[in-house]
Each structure stands twice: as structure tokens, then as C-alpha cells.
């Protein structure tokens, strides 16, 4: 099988941030896939499934409710590694283009005060019980305040390959730090 582009990103040097994963063309139309990286790969605890699931529901609903962007949203959903999300928008963008939008989105998720998460019913969702609203609000708050608020170039552009792959080792899973500890 071919090695796909996202597996060539040096995850050892990848910080929480906002990146353009790729720009594809659907016919003549560009389509941008963003890598919205919430936790540091292999260094910080990834989001639990209830947290990432709740952010998926809240974020997708938020994006499709915003008139200025809704018509460009193709997809918003979680990465399998549970360290972030992919957002796919119609159009060609750089990562900084969507930072103001993401600031608003994650601020609104952090402040979400309703008791029920949109779409969290057995009719609408395939695993509606697996929702952690408090976790979603904590991670959204952390991401907005500590990553988006003063985001710099090192969190807007993928790191260069830089180091040989063999030097990229993580000691043990017990070394994982909780990002929510920084909130
Ligand atoms: Zn669901």
C-alpha cells in the first residue's frame, strides 16, 4: 500500500495547533483539509472517546449553523488517534485563515450551557451514550486559551521532517501528561 501524506508528518515534533493537512482538487475546485491538533501526539493524553465525540457533535453543529461558513463545510470529525480533528472546507486556505473562526467555535463549546448535546439520541447517533460534555468543555477551553489565543508560526505550519525517524521514540505510556492539568 502507498504511504499516505499524513503519515509523513513528523509527529514527534508536532505541537497542538492548526495546520493545513492537504489541498485536494475535486475537479477544478480546491478542497482544504485542516489538521486541528488538540493534544500533543504521544506526549499528552489523547481525548477520551466521550470527549472527542461530544466535540464532534458540538463542532459540526456549530459549523453548519454559521451562515458565513456553513456552505463551505464538507466535513468535521475526529482523528482515530484521538489527538485532534479534521475539518474539510471547500476552497483553498492557509491555516491562519480559520483561526478566528476556531476561536469562536471553541469558546462557544467551552461555554455550552444546554443539558443535551445536539444529535445525542439513539435515533441520530450510533453511540449516543458515549458523550463527555464536561470533558469537551475542558478541552475546548484549554485549546482556545493555550493554543489559539496566541498562536505562532510553529503551531500553524507542520514541522519539517528534521530528525531521523529512529530518534523519535516515546519512553512509555505512563509518561503521558494530561493537557487538562494546564487549564
Ligand atoms: Zn455521534
Task: Outline the secondary-structure elements.
Blueprint (H helix, E strand, L loop, with lengths): L16 E10 L2 E9 L11 H17 L1 H4 L2 E6 L5 E7 L8 H12 L22 H16 L35
Antiparallel strand pairs: 1-2, 2-4, 3-4
Helix pairs in contact: 1-4, 3-4
The chain binds zinc ion.
The site of zinc ion has 3 residues, from α1.
What would you note in describing this structure?
The structure is a single chain. This protein is of the alpha+beta class. It has one domain: 2-Layer Sandwich (Gyrase A, domain 2), CATH 3.30.1360.80. 27% of the residues lie in helices and 17% in strands. The protein is built from four helices and four strands, in the order E-E-H-H-E-E-H-H. The protein has a four-stranded antiparallel β-sheet. A hairpin with a 5-residue loop joins strand 3 (73-78) and strand 4. The longest helix has 17 residues, at 49-65. The termini are far apart. It binds zinc ion. Zinc ion (ZN) is lined by residues 53, 57, 125. Zinc ion binds at residues 53, 57, 125.
N-to-C span: 41 Å
Residue share in helix: 25-40%
> SS-based structural class?
alpha+beta
List the strand order in the largest sheet. Answer: 1-2-4-3
CATH topology: Gyrase A, domain 2
- Helix and strand run: EEHHEEHH
List cofactors, ions and other ligands.
Answer: zinc ion
Q: In a few lines, what is going on in this structure?
A:
The chain is α+β, with helices and mostly antiparallel strands. The protein has helices at 49-65, 67-70, 99-110, 133-148; strands at 17-26, 29-37, 73-78, 84-90.
Amino acid at each position: 500500500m502507498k504511504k499516505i501524506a499524513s503519515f509523513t508528518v513528523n509527529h514527534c515534533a508536532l505541537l497542538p495547533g492548526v495546520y493545513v493537512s492537504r489541498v485536494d482538487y475535486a475537479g477544478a475546485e480546491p478542497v482544504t483539509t485542516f489538521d486541528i491538533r488538540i493534544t500533543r501526539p504521544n506526549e499528552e493524553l489523547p481525548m477520551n472517546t466521550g470527549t472527542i465525540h461530544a466535540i464532534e457533535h458540538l463542532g459540526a453543529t456549530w459549523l453548519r449553523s454559521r451562515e458565513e461558513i456553513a456552505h463551505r463545510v464538507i466535513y468535521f470529525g475526529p482523528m482515530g488517534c484521538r489527538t485532534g480533528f479534521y475539518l474539510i472546507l471547500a476552497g483553498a486556505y492557509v491555516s491562519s485563515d480559520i483561526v478566528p473562526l476556531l476561536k469562536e467555535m471553541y469558546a462557544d463549546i467551552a461555554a455550552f450551557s444546554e443539558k443535551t448535546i445536539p444529535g445525542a439520541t439513539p435515533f441520530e447517533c450510533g453511540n449516543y451514550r458515549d458523550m463527555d460534555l464536561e470533558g469537551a468543555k475542558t478541552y475546548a477551553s484549554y485549546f482556545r486559551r493555550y493554543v489559539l489565543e496566541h498562536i505562532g508560526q510553529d503551531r500553524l505550519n507542520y514541522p519539517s521532517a528534521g530528525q531521523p525517524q529512529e530518534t523519535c521514540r516515546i519512553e512509555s505510556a505512563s509518561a503521558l501528561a494530561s493537557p487538562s492539568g494546564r487549564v
